[in-house]
Specification:
about 75% helix, single chain, mainly alpha
């Protein structure tokens, strides 16, 4: 984390470092900090698929359902087909967030 923070401090809006930082924080269950990192990335790159997917994942973990839905929906609009596994995961989360009683639980 420290090295990523240093890279971000040297180069404001460093997309790759912000997303990588968010991804690392999610794996450590620091979802608040991860969401902040993804949001910082989205400030300068609002259509970045990795930042949108990560923000959706972090927001869902924090039970910020409206936020998670918004990020996943935008991700599905802008993500290339090459991100098929992420697209499938985003669709599953949107079904779960919709309150569908048949949706898989986490």
């Amino acid at each position: 984390i420290r090295l990523l923070d240093e890279a971000i401090a040297r180069r404001a809006g460093y997309l790759e470092a912000l997303v990588e930082r968010g991804d690392l924080l999610v794996t450590q269950s620091h979802h608040d900090a991860a969401l902040n990192s993804y949001r910082a990335a989205l400030t300068t790159h609002p259509d970045d698929p990795q930042a949108l997917f990560g923000a959706g994942r972090a927001a869902a973990a924090l039970r910020l359902d409206a936020d998670a839905r918004r990020h996943y929906e935008r991700f599905l609009r802008v993500a290339p087909a090459a991100l098929g596994a992420h697209r499938a995961a985003a669709r599953r989360e949107l079904v779960r967030l919709s309150g569908d009683p048949l949706a898989p639980k986490r």
